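User
Please review the sequence:
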Amino acid sequence: MLFTLFEAAKNSPFKGPLTVAKCDSPAPADAATDYSCEFGSNKYYALCGLGGILSCGITHTAVVPLDLVKCRIQVNPDKYKSVFNGFRVTIKEDGVRGLGKGWAPTFIGYSMQGLCKFGFYEVFKNMYSGILGEENTYLWRTSLYLAASASAEFFADIALSPMEAVKVRIQTQPGFVSTLREAVPLMYKDEGLGGFYKSLVPLWMRQIPYTMMKFACFERTVELLYKHVVPKPRADCTKGEQLVVTFAAGYIAGVFCAIVSHPADTVVSKLNQEKGSTAMEAAKKLGMAGLWKGLTPRIIMIGTLTALQWFIYDAVKVTLRLPRPPPPEMPESLKKKLAEAQE
């Protein structure tokens, strides 16, 4: 499956404004040799996947304490009444080390998710661009971002689901074991392989809208920042300045991501805490108000997380000298058509 998608994207005939590898500043005709690989090559997609591993694995592991408190607020709001109360109760009962519960499945699961999320996004974006053509790619670029990110996240969640189930069980079920190597055989013994995938559908419900917002909002925010806020074109910005814009756009996207995906996130937490329950049963038990418990810490967590992920991902591209296409511009052919229509 991976090889087929890579080949389809690599052989795409389109190299339009969303995909063509352009230099960040005026350079000689042979400047493409400054890149470590060709845009759309298998090496390019593999290195993008590596960037995804680093961006998602590192950031999600770094916020495990906040994620743990957020999950406990979602599944037991009577005991964990707020962020600060949640930290205080957790430290009192488990000590400071207890805040790190679930770090191992978090790191593994979200590294695999990042590999598929960012790697496949680049694949699908290039492939769908080839289907649409240059002009339609520009006109329908937001739809392109949404479709490519949704397609990528479908596969990313399949990779994430087993470790997400283990993580939530470790963090929220009282008396359960606290390490990955103990949790996996216990869960397999009790529930079989299905226990690791029982929350896959609500995970899709949480992550696909989240990722669609994450990528589409980020892409359009970057475009708007360079157009209306940054006082000079991206080609005239230093790499450092470009990364600052990336971080700002990532944080804005992250806030919207948290709000859109929060109810499904609460269901996932409740579902993995209780054996044998379904997504509908968990949602009914939580109620409308309960579905929004823990939103504040999640906005803080996801906003910071998304900003850092985009920053790390873009920094990896800079460090590894990958092609980084600038924000899209209207094709000359489309400009001529619009000018002719106005005459």
Remarks:
- DSSP finds 13 helices and no strands in the chain.
- The chain has one domain: 37-335.
- Confidence is low (pLDDT under 50) at residues 13-17, 19-32.
